[in-house]
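Internal tracking record. Fields below are filled automatically when a chain is submitted to the structure queue. Please do not edit lines marked as system-generated. If the sequence contains nonstandard residues, flag them in the REMARKS field before resubmitting.
Queue: standard
Priority: normal
Entity type: single polypeptide chain
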Amino acid sequence: MSQANPLQVPNVHQGEPIPDSAREAIEALMQSGDLFRYTAPQDAPVSLLESEFAALLGSKYALAVSSCSAALFLALKALDLPRDARVLIPGFTFAAVPSSVVHADCVPVLCEVGENYRINMADFEARLDEDIAAVIISHMRGHTSDMDAIMALCQARDIPVVEDAAHSLGTTWHGRNIGTLGQIGCFSFQSYKMLNAGEGGILVTDDADIVARAVIMSGAYEHNWQKHKPAPGDNGTELEEAFARWQNLLPLYNLRMSNLSAAVIRPQIPELARRVADGRKNHDYVAARLNAHANFHVPAPLASEERAPDSIQFNLVDMDDAQIEAFAAATAAKGVKVQIFGRSSDNARAFWNWQFLKDLPELPETRAMLMKACDVRLPVRLTQGELDVIADILLSAATETMARVAA
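SYSTEM-GENERATED OUTPUT FOLLOWS
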């Protein structure tokens, strides 16, 4: 344990301030009143964000929408899946993922997730042959499953892959940006993510037909799709033909992003690389301290993965239920709220709480993991001193809990 730190427990729910450079764009929007993305004939803030984000990820197209949940829903609708199509998802994800499947008139199928928070590949492969029409891979809390194996299995069966990369902006796999490995990648701009607009989401793809369908269904009524930019180096013919194929043939769900949200997001993009580096450094520092204690285990990243974390997850080792509950109470009393995913009757990340699903399966491996898996936010703005405060509390709570048991 480090020496006692005089710093107070940091507020881990407070993000970085929005860059001052956003103020001018926001003020201009407030003066003009042009908050609707399709008001301007061209180069509206949302349109510029889409171009900048696609370039950042190395994708041909991007569509900004109201949330990552909206992006996931539109991704499934854009794949033109039949009603009641079976969509395979991990058993460890946020409730918005199975919800998006339900909203798209499809049926979620859950697979096991292991102690390292990644998909159990044997169970995944077995369930792929259960009449699966599409797959959503949730990189939950930024942990990347074996994307080489996943893509090979899905490509061999001609099953499209959607990446839920809500927690993974800045993460790479073999140097490629997460979110660009599958047919569609979906990201979040919610306040706890690397780019913060309070709410918001975006999807990326290289498929003109997919993005055309998604754009129309997002709310590009009449010919507003003409204000969406073609990919760089493309004369627009491919995209224009795709829009023409689907004009008036798709329902409108009106999931658009406003110009105000885009004006908040765009100035943060130049900050992303620094935030990713700071987040990784912070995570690895705390992980090293926790892994030195017998009752903690922070799973290591996979060899092909470069993570971009803004939180830390760890498993409690050699603690029974009473000890785990005592540890959680001790950390809370010291000022650090530890979320243990499976130990709440309403935690939206515990699959058995998704009571809106029919015939919920039992996933014993995933359940066992969730009952001892802990989650603590580590905003990238934290100093090493603040990280030590958090680590000291976690370590002392575990030591005191186990000492009481021994006594």
